[in-house]
């Protein structure tokens, strides 16, 4: 009976427009009462602080700030011009430009939604003028946006690392190869479809112009290089790299003469809003995780799944399905906060590597945002470009199938994920 009342309260609050973080926190506190664990609530504030007061979490608002500054200071346009110079001359060239731009953006913002919105405003109109259907242009934009949170820096990986107390540096290094494999798969799919549907080649930039654009884009391209090399070679922690990224972003904005106090304050304001919402969510999840630990829910769940035969590769498949569906319906931080504390510990108990599981989960959630009927990236691209949602969804199917194949490779060949962290000494 108490569980039914709590569920009814939660659904009522959710349907009434309640904040999910408040919903999780309130439901968890009521569950303490229902489970006769009220006396343990005295330690709840300490558990909340312990869940937030992590050195690795300091990097999250700094990376968000760096991305916001770079999106406002001409960095993204410089990278876009370089991508056009490198790839547009190929068959289906603007499709390749779309994908390469997402790879470049991945080293800046690490946000799939920001990538989808930005590219929808720039490359999609250019693709339409060159003869591509708006559905295809929107589909490849949505599909390539998933690369952003896979190639570091990644806000999603920082969030996962905080939830599971896992090395963010190792996660960043582990995401490089999967992100590049995903990009290669999308390049191959676009090349095949370009020949099948006779997509046009784009602008053939002369070599001297290519050199000029490369030099102009240097301040933008060195930022992800500094971040990644600093982390990979152990020179900087992710938090230090995030601080350096902010300084580099401001410096690049000054070089491109597009930095101003107004843009800096707008970036700070946006960063505060995003970071605040994530920290509130983490606070609610801390209470839920505290109760789950007291009631031994992860252990009970592991035993229950094992009794049903979900062990080894079967459990990995189950995780794929759950997180893929969660990515379709929930915002990524919400899905991580709700599911990771419950579903990852059983996997670890079965012998899975936390870094490998983290990358697989991130890729699943990213594929969820391009999977109908509620793919968030599809909705963003449709809204920004004006293309019909279901037209984009249909055109995205070949790309989504390619991404699912990549996901299966990453799931069942852990070395694709763990090779680079082992090589650089982050795991043994």
Automatic annotation (TrEMBL):
Residue ranges of every copy of the TRAP C4-dicarboxylate transport system permease DctM subunit domain listed in the record: 12-416
- Main localization (coarse): membrane
Residue stretches spanning the membrane: 48-66, 103-124, 136-163, 169-193, 214-235, 241-259, 271-293, 313-343, 355-384, 396-420
How does this protein lie in the membrane?
Multi-pass membrane protein
Q: Which Gene Ontology terms cover its molecular function?
A: transmembrane transporter activity
Where in the cell is the protein located? Cell inner membrane
* GO cellular component terms attached to this protein's record: plasma membrane
Keyword Membrane listed: yes
Task: Report the superkingdom from the record.
Answer: Bacteria
InterPro entries (alphabetical)? DctM, TRAP_DctM
Cite the entry's keywords alphabetically: Cell inner membrane, Cell membrane, Membrane, Transmembrane, Transmembrane helix, Transport
State how it assembles: The complex comprises the extracytoplasmic solute receptor protein and the two transmembrane proteins.
What this chain does, per the record?
Part of the tripartite ATP-independent periplasmic (TRAP) transport system.
- Similarity comment: Belongs to the TRAP transporter large permease family.
Q: What is this protein called?
A: TRAP transporter large permease protein
